[in-house]
Amino acid sequence: MTATLSDDEVGKTVIDAEGKELGIVAQVDGGRAAVDPNPSVAEHVLAKVGVEGEDEEDYVVTEDMLETVGEDIVLRGEL
To answer: What whole-number distance in Å separates Cα of residue 49 and Cα of residue 78?
Structure first.
């Protein structure tokens, strides 16, 4: 079963299969998440309250790339 993304994931940390932090979810839209790879403290706070949005430095993570969605979002190892 593939993990799913919802607006509840905004502000969560994205981690690769080896445990490396890759950034935070800035926005979720239609089964894809915009991930900010270098969030500032202010961007962390804004994401937690749902104000942060996608910008040009963000990269996209799709549901088929996910291993688990919980307190953090963990990507599959075989991407």
So the answer is: 32
